[in-house]
Design goal:
Length: about 180
């Protein structure tokens, strides 16, 4: 069993993407007058198709800017989402015009609120690893960032984030779906 696990994992690592171990320290990025603080994501179960990306963005400039998209090594699509109440149900939807960060404002992307949505994951996100990507702003342009993958007990942004069974790995043969 462990041989299979190992080879699947090795295969996934070499062919799909380079998820590298990273310390779970705060990390910051600067792009023009924007400061991007501590991009992070959550560990996902092997069956997950989506994951949320979170961070704090501060605009120290005098002009408004917008987070309009991104790229990621770990998913085919990146969207910028917000959470809205639809009756009693919380839903997420894409922000067609991106997320505005006004001059002097600081916006936190967090579970249950604004988030970057990784869609069509090519591999589960594992705690302690990091995921490389780019953020794209309307005016400031593109910046490469790394999301640390954390196991926070925060509310799932994707609505399907409960991973109680993700570590068993029994009889699951999906590439990369097992731990260790
Ligand atoms: Cu979303």
């Amino acid at each position: 069993m462990s041989n299979t696990t190992f080879s699947l994992r090795a295969l996934a690592c070499t062919t799909l993407l380079a998820l590298t171990p990273a310390p779970s320290l705060a990390h910051d990025y600067k792009l023009g007058s924007l400061a991007i603080n501590h991009p992070w994501s959550r560990a996902t179960p092997g069956s997950a198709r989506v994951a949320g990306g979170f961070m704090k963005i501060t605009n120290a400039g005098t002009e408004s800017d917008r987070l309009i998209g991104g790229t990621s090594e770990a998913s085919k699509i990146i969207e910028i989402h917000e959470m809205i109440m639809d009756g009693n149900v919380m839903k997420m939807r894409a922000l067609e015009k991106g997320l505005e960060i006004k001059p002097g404002a600081s916006i936190e992307l967090k579970p249950g609120s604004y988030h970057v949505m990784f869609i069509d994951l090519t591999k589960p996100f594992k705690e302690g690893e990091s995921v490389k990507g780019e953020l794209i702003f309307e005016k400031a342009g593109r910046i490469a960032v790394e999301y640390t993958v954390e196991n926070r007990g925060a509310k799932a942004a994707g609505g399907t984030g409960h991973d109680a069974h993700a570590t068993h790995g029994d009889m699951k043969t999906g590439a990369g779906g097992m731990k260790k």
